[in-house]
Amino acid sequence: MAISPLRFFSTAASAHPPISATLFPGDGIGPEIAESVKQEFNAAQVTIEWEEHFI
């Protein structure tokens, strides 16, 4: 039995409904970290609907 070295993954972001997430940036470095997190998900082509609350 041979195992193929080829693997296929679906990366189409549109194939999945957007994820809803709540984000509380906070204060201090929180807003910078929150923005970095949003950029990382965007770079990974993960569709997230952010609901931000500033406290």
Automatic annotation (TrEMBL):
An annotated Gene Ontology molecular function: isocitrate dehydrogenase (NAD+) activity
GO cellular-component term (any): mitochondrion
SUPFAM superfamilies, sorted: Isocitrate/Isopropylmalate dehydrogenase-like
Keywords, in A-Z order: Oxidoreductase
Gene Ontology terms: biological process: isocitrate metabolic process; tricarboxylic acid cycle
Domain of life assignment: Eukaryota
Keyword Oxidoreductase tagged: yes
Similarity comment: Belongs to the isocitrate and isopropylmalate dehydrogenases family.
Name of this protein: Isocitrate dehydrogenase
Species this protein is from: Dioscorea zingiberensis
